[in-house]
Amino acid sequence: MPRNFCTAQIVVLMALALARGAAACTDAGDAAPAGADGGADDAPSPLASRCPDALPVDGETCRVPEGTTCDLGACATQIATCTRGRWRIGANPDPSPPCPAAAPDLGDPCPPCWPSARSCRYGSVDCSLADASQNVATATCAAGAWMIRIEPCRDASADAPSDVQDDAESGRD
Predict the structure, then answer these.
(1) Domain count, the chain
(2) Is 14 among the domain residues?
(3) How far apart are CA 4 and CA 100, in angstroms?
(4) 18 falls within a domain
(5) Does a structural domain hold residue 13?
(6) 166 within some domain
(7) DSSP state, 3?
(8) Whole-angstrom Cα distance, residue 133 to residue 131?
(9) Could you list the residue range(s) of the whole structural domain that residue 132 is in?
(10) Residue pLDDT, tens place only, 107-117
(11) Residue 161: pLDDT above 60?
(12) What angle do CA 19, 23, 25 make, to 5 degrees?
């Protein structure tokens, strides 16, 4: 086949493709309105684009895109995921943040999402640390503010009975 014949076929095919694309546009250059050909239209989408305001019931129909996950509890502890058109409800464990490096002051605000069951201890529980104070502080968070409990540090010999008269070894009564 002559080379000019192949080139002519390519030019004709490109011209047909361009003509077809131009026919799909209006005079203003906008895409032609879609009809029964399955193109886009102005009808509202059956899928919402936002999460519900309240935690849905497990198994309830969801109208968001498949796989949408919504955080509906404080600190991401309650989550709802749209799976196969139904809400699936799950829960994450409470966060377990690290304790502050230094003991907080009584009444200082706690970090956001601090779990109420989490406590932090400061000082030496058994008096073995070189810088051990005579007290141990336990900090907990109640109603958004630090509560501090101070207690004496327990010496390793604190479990032994007290020998006030210093006569336990001698056998004296």
Answers:
(1) 2
(2) no
(3) 81
(4) no
(5) no
(6) no
(7) H
(8) 6
(9) 96-157
(10) 999 988 888 88
(11) no
(12) 125
